[in-house]
Known about the structure:
This protein is mainly α. The protein has one domain (3-242). It contains 14 helices and no strands. α4 (48-67) packs antiparallel against α7. It is globular and about 60 Å long. The chain starts with a helix and ends with a helix. The model is unreliable at 31-38 (pLDDT under 50).
Amino acid sequence: MSIWGKIAGVGLGAALGGPIGALIGLAAGHAVDRGVDSGGIEGPVRGPEASVAFTVGVIALAAKMAKADGQVTRSEVDAFKTMFQVPPAEVKNVGRIFDLARQDVAGFESYAKQIGRMFRDRPNVLEDLLDGLFRIAMADSVFHPSEEQFLRRVAEIFGFAEHDFLRIKASHLGPDMADPYTVLGVAHDATEEEIRKTYRRLVKENHPDTLIAQGVPEEMIQSATEKIASINVAYDNVAKARGFN
């Protein structure tokens, strides 16, 4: 069974608990104990549960991200569909979760906190989630201040420092507009070895195989591929300016 079929299972929702588990139960049409809206699994998750938890968490945050500026646009919904490459047979299931979550922005922090706990030992997975949210935020070509505030708060909950948030944000501005040093997350006076070391780490952490092994569903790997392309462009620009290969 694909991950899209699994998200409708009430048994999995009860096992995960917390707001994510509640959302799965509601989407499946089951009555859910309101007590499940807080808490949930406290530690890291692995295996199929990790992929399902990641997917539902992203759907919930993506829906609330799209609502952050007060209006869910067609371009934002289309960006979500492109990011996840939802099979036609599963559009209804995914749409139900998306619609339940996007009713308002309230509660986004509880979803972020649960996802943060589940993947606290895999910051690259959390960063991939943030990348997906940035893509939705910028789908309508307007990066609204409320969207940036939303993303900054999610990043904070995930444990990212300010310079990490700025690095992730810069990677979505495009190579012509973004500072390549910011995209790489290094200082302008960083040594050649520091730049090389950081570049190798970022490529390794964002490699599709690494992310899939750590719980990111295959449907969302396009985001990681685009991230690596941005990192490569930034490194090439720095290397050319510094005169090293």
